[in-house]
Hints:
The protein is an alpha/beta fold. The protein has a single domain (about 15-130), classed as Rossmann fold (3-Layer(aba) Sandwich). Helix content is about 35%, strand content about 15%. The protein has four helices and four strands. It has a four-stranded parallel sheet with strand order 3-2-1-4, with helices on both faces. Helix 2 links the parallel strand 2 (about 45-50) and strand 3. The chain is globular and about 45 Å long.
Amino acid sequence: MAKVLTIPKNWSASDIPDLPGKRFLITGATSGIGLAAATELARRNAHVYITARTVEKARDAIKKIGPGLVDYLLMDLTDLDSVRKAAARVDKQFDVVVLNAGVMATPFTKTKDGFELQLGTNHLGHFAFAGL
Length: 132
């Protein structure tokens, strides 16, 4: 069952404990908040899995993350077939899944499955992945 966590007012990344043996999966970890989260978790000895649309983006992110146990899972949230395939490749139980990937204020475009891009990326892709 999911837990709701409250964060103390003066919390910082340095408060994250050592996390050996813990598995985290983070979508949207090739840039921004997801990349920062993956970096901090890798520094704390967690096994971090990041998702990326391409091998190149995954490898670039892993270089930026630096030392640590980091793997990648190819997944394009705008393509539900890609989401299904990614979910089928995951054979590990994760301690934490951070559904962080998203787009905002993009020109009107549709996903491969015909959904508006922002809805498909930010919500439907994650919903499908979490449900599989």
